[in-house]
């Protein structure tokens, strides 16, 4: 069956940037794009991702990813070109060689992952992100005061998971900056805590790893508690809506375990 990447109109759209196409290798994982493929081509290779050009969350996210890329290099592969027509919005990144990080206890990747999250926390907030306040957890916060504890002027990545933390021979990358926001800097290390718990760490172990991030060390414990409670509520709602999505169930369990550990069970 023909794929969007191999369709003639798609090839015509990207050819000015790729030259002649030799081979396309679809990648595994990822939920934010319809096309996610490494393209071997005359001017590449490139990692190509695309979404339909119609209003909605995925369109907005790919626009954010294009706009944020200059501010997040070299932690993210460089965006080399973008293309758009009535059907598609397409981004073309440097194709990097790497594998998904292993978050499990005892993994040799753990220091690299923590270091990468800490480096994200050291990035300056670009002007474009000032208009992207973090609000995803607001409706799950206990009240406006608890939601206010999640405010801040740090650049947030938030999409921390093993597939987005790529480990190469000599470096590591945080890929898929689909929804960067402005908020409290501890939120990224807190997301890492939940991911580590989901990978088999105890809450104590996960928090000890997060202590390698300056934003976690400097965080107000009350703010972390507010986030842990809101996050547990959010994932419970999401998992209840999609009971067949096992990854949501795993995140709900991990978030609840962390909230219990911090004594803020919902």
TrEMBL record:
Domain of life: Bacteria
SUPFAM superfamilies in alphabetical order: Protein kinase-like (PK-like) (SSF56112)
Name of the protein described by the UniProt record: Phosphotransferase enzyme family protein
Organism: Streptomyces radiopugnans
């Amino acid at each position: 069956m023909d794929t969007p990447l191999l369709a003639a109109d798609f090839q015509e759209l990207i050819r000015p940037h790729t030259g002649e196409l030799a081979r396309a290798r679809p990648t595994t994982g990822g939920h934010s794009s319809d096309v996610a493929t490494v393209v071997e081509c005359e001017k590449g290779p490139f990692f190509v991702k695309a979404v339909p050009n119609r209003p909605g969350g995925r369109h907005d996210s790919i626009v954010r990813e294009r706009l944020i890329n200059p501010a997040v290099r070299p932690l993210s592969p460089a965006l080399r070109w973008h293309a758009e027509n009535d059907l598609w919005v397409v981004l073309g990144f440097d194709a990097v060689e790497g594998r998904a990080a292993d978050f499990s206890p005892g993994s040799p990747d753990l220091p690299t992952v923590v270091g990468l999250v800490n480096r994200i926390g050291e990035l300056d907030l670009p002007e474009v992100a000032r208009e992207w306040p973090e609000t995803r957890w607001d409706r799950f916060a206990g009240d406006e005061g608890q939601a206010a504890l999640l405010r801040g002027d740090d650049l947030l990545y938030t999409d921390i998971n093993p597939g987005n933390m790529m480990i190469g021979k000599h470096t590591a990358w945080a890929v898929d900056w689909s929804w960067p926001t402005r908020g409290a800097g501890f939120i990224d290390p807190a997301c890492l805590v939940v991911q580590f718990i989901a990978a088999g760490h105890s809450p104590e172990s996960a928090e000890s790893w997060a202590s390698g991030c300056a934003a976690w060390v400097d965080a107000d414990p009350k703010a972390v508690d507010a986030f842990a409670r809101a996050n547990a509520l959010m994932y419970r709602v999401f998992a209840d809506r999609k009971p067949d999505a096992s990854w949501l169930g795993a995140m709900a369990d991990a978030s609840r375990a962390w909230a219990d550990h911090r004594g803020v069970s919902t």
